[in-house]
Amino acid sequence: MSITAELTPLFLLGGLLLLGWSFNRARLRGGIGLLNWLQSLTLFLPWLIFIGLVSAGIYLSIVGFVLLLAVSTVIYIALGNLLRRRLLAEQRHRPPMPPAEGVPGPSPQTSAGTSLLEELEKSKLTAEELEGIRSIFGLDTFFATEIIPYASGVIVKGNLRGEPDPVLAALTAKMEAVAPGQWRVYLVEDRDDKPTVVVLPERLVNRPVSRGFTYLAIGLMVVAFLTMLEVGANLAGFDLLTTPERWVEALPIAAGIFASLVVHETGHRWMAGRYGVRLSPALVIPALGIGTLGTLTRIESPVPHRRALFDIAIAGPAAGGLFSLGVLIAGLFLSQGTGLIYVPSGIFQNSVLVGTLAKLILGAELSQEVIGIHPFVAVGWIGLAVTALSLLPAGQLDGGRIIQAVYGRRTAARTTLVTLIVLGFAALGNVIALYWALLILLVAREPERPPLNELSETDTPQDALALLALFLTIMILLPITPVLARFLNFGGAVG
């Protein structure tokens, strides 16, 4: 049985169960919740149809898949416009809270008999808490004109009266003096790109994951290590399921792949520690064929600013990528003249970066149909592939967080949609692209929550590093064209 036949029904079942669970949650939020759920359904539907057809042995043509994506995109945009109109209508009918004392602004209003006391009850704020929040604003920091209930906190509209960093520091210090350890102050952009302050309870923005999440992380790590052993066994030339007693022979390759993940996560956690940000346990995603699709990590506590979000996101791929690149280059040098694993030389056409490095180091050996390589080559290549997958500019992947840090939430949402479409085309010929797209849809498609200071942008070196990361991702994942393969004299090059 093929990998596709084994895993595709499981992904289909998982997608349907997730949709059912999210529908039950959406019903509790009324009409807006159901509209939001329908939007999510339009994102899932093309993939569910595609997977269902694959399970039945039916493969869509490119034209059919493009048509499916186009129809779902049109419906997604239409539902989004409807949802925005509903939210704006609710906001227009919601009475604003009174501005801070001494600050001019719209007077308190009531509609349909709604009183300020009822509004406070809806927002779960006491009058004392509201007064404490109002007291932190002033003419020298943020000129508040309107306070609107939001979740268990408030949204404060007004005018920014200084640079974002010192203003946020001043507001935070005042809030801490009024109510120590109870509130977090965010300085963000609203839908009109205007500076807005959001004040939320500490308990909502600084929540560790549950014990069940930790158990899930441990279980996935064990399963992923078994799939890494399976990769090591395949490269060593035996079947782990039929000869499990030979698992020790597969251990070095499995340990190498696992080490690249450890280095990757160490980079994230080292940088997060520098900024005082807490990360959840990493979910190691198992995958047959390459051992793992990488890790997914949740940011549990607020990130101070966009520069910090960038640094935390880039640190993992930088550490894991450099480690894997070093292992790959060492493996290529150790492969000269001899090797422990024999593979078709044409396999190096699957990556521009790896193929070019192989040509530079192995030279004329690549003109042979079959060559011997050191296991380090496989370990380094898999590590680079996993790093590149984590840098895809989508949702809460490292690449999505980098795009959000550099270009903002709106651009990050657009690149997520583009990435899913590109993965859709790639899935027509590569099952790994299909599973990675499904993982993004299932658990990581939403942008990361905003940093405390969303207004201050990243600096020029970070912007340049983001472009370099995107370029290297393309070079790792993009295959060599037949013309370039003939120029590099790969064995078996066609075209």
For this entry, give a set of tags:
globular, four-stranded antiparallel beta sheet, 60% helix, 3 domains, 495 residues, alpha+beta, Threonyl-tRNA Synthetase, Chain A, domain 2
Explain what this protein looks like in three dimensions.
The chain is an alpha+beta fold. It folds into 3 domains: 3-92, no CATH class; 116-205, Threonyl-tRNA Synthetase, Chain A, domain 2; 211-488, no CATH class. It is 60% helix and 10% strand. It has 17 helices and 8 strands. The protein has helices at 3-27, 30-55, 62-92, 116-123, 127-134, 164-178, 202-205, 211-236, 247-274, 306-334, 352-362, 375-390, 398-407, 409-427, 431-444, 460-477, 482-488; strands spanning 142-150, 153-160, 183-189, 195-201, 283-287, 291-296, 341-344, 370-373. The protein has a 4-stranded antiparallel beta sheet. Strands 5-6 form a two-stranded antiparallel ribbon.
Q: In whole angstroms, how far apart are the ends?
A: 32 Å
Q: Percent of residues in helical segments?
A: 55-70%
The Cα radius of gyration reads: 26 Å
Q: Major β-sheet, in short? A: 4 strands, antiparallel
Could you write a compact summary of the structure shown?
This protein has 495 residues and is α+β, with helices and mostly antiparallel strands.
Question: What's the arrangement of secondary structure elements?
Answer:
Layout: H1 3-27, H2 30-55, H3 62-92, H4 116-123, H5 127-134, E1 142-150, E2 153-160, H6 164-178, E3 183-189, E4 195-201, H7 202-205, H8 211-236, H9 247-274, E5 283-287, E6 291-296, H10 306-334, E7 341-344, H11 352-362, E8 370-373, H12 375-390, H13 398-407, H14 409-427, H15 431-444, H16 460-477, H17 482-488
Helix pairs in contact: 1-2, 1-15, 2-3, 8-9, 9-10, 9-12, 10-11, 10-12, 10-13, 12-16, 13-14, 13-16, 14-15
